[in-house]
Specification:
Layout lengths: L18 E5 L13 E6 L2 E3 L23 E3 L1 H17 L1 E8 L5 H9 L4 E5 L9 H15 L3 E5 L10 H9 L3 E11 L2 E8 L2 E8 L2 E5 L11 H7 L4 E4 L41 H11 L4
Parallel strand pairs: 1-10, 2-5, 2-7, 5-6, 6-12, 7-11, 8-11
Antiparallel strand pairs: 3-4, 8-9, 9-10
Helix pairs in contact: 2-5, 3-4
Length: about 300
């Protein structure tokens, strides 16, 4: 994916320490915005890390319908929503939420709408069950082609799968630039630039819209929905699509055709009681012996 990994240019005269610059090839496409930016934020409902997460014995997939395991909006997606809202406030336009998942994912949609977004699209179909990252990117790309976009924003990864692959795969399938791991996003007309987080500081990556951007944690401070916005979210439009509505080939999605699989899993054993070390002048030795027995030292 050539556009997903822009070549780094040497530091220019005007570049600050810790900054490199790169331009992404957009194939000559330029976007002229007349009424703001059409922003789509992709979100995911994930299992709450505070509850016990279970895999289904019959197919080794996450049991998203388990009544004892609640689903929540992926935390990193909240930063993507906030970034979309800030860009809308600065440039006009609208922010659409896009999610793929079972009926239970509607809870996540409502929270995203309560943060201030305008509308939502829910891709929901039994045939999607068990789809891996490759298949999910295909399904989401088909939906994005139908609803249209100027800018797609995602969190850098989900807290359940943690692949961090979806943004790159979407950009490739949509044929638009990917600007990844952004902790700052600036739109100027039809141009977009980000600060891409690196070990040495950041790269400044520039492109033109349309594009796909993934943002990292702490890019901004996500707003907390107020009661008025929570009530208003109940009336905001949510469009539900099945796979036929967005021309998804059933043979390219679902558990049977997944590119990855869970070979086996086991339930974690109960947590054993801790070891109490009583210091009688030899506490340090006892701790060292314990750590040695566990092969930590």
């Amino acid at each position: 994916m050539e556009h997903a990994r822009p070549a780094r240019a040497p530091l220019g005269d005007g570049a600050r320490r810790g900054e490199r610059q790169a331009r992404v090839n957009t194939g000559g496409r330029r976007l002229t915005m007349k009424s703001g930016i059409n922003i789509v934020v992709c979100v995911k409902q994930v299992p709450d890390t505070a509850t016990v997460r279970k895999l289904r014995a019959e197919d080794s997939t996450i049991d998203r319908e388990d009544p004892n395991s609640s689903g929540v909006l992926n935390e990193l997606d909240e930063y993507a929503i906030e970034e979309g809202l800030r860009l809308k406030e600065a440039h006009g336009g609208e922010v659409t939420i896009l999610t793929m998942g079972p009926a239970k994912a509607a809870e996540t949609i409502r929270k995203a709408l309560a943060m201030g977004t305008d509308k939502a699209v829910h891709l929901m179909d039994p045939a999607l069950h068990g789809s891996d990252a490759v298949q999910t990117s295909y399904a989401m790309a088909q939906t994005l082609k139908k609803i249209g976009f100027d800018l797609v924003i995602l969190g850098s990864e989900s807290t359940d799968a943690r692949t961090g692959l979806l943004a790159a795969m979407l950009a490739e399938r949509l044929g638009v630039p990917q600007l990844s791991l952004a902790n700052k996003v600036v739109v100027d007309g039809s141009a977009i630039s980000i600060h891409r987080v690196t070990d040495y500081g950041y790269d400044r990556v520039e492109s033109s819209l349309p594009a796909v951007v993934s943002v990292v944690e702490k890019t901004n401070e996500p707003r907390y929905p107020r009661l008025k916005e929570i009530m208003a979210a109940k009336k905001k439009p949510v469009t539900t699509f099945g796979i036929a509505d967005v021309e998804i080939d059933p043979g390219r999605i679902g558990l049977a055709g997944a590119y990855t699989e869970v070979a086996e899993f086991a339930v974690a054993p109960p947590r054993a009681a801790g070891v109490v070390v009583k210091d009688e002048g030899d506490g340090g030795v006892k701790v060292a012996d314990f750590l040695t027995s566990k092969k930590f030292i």
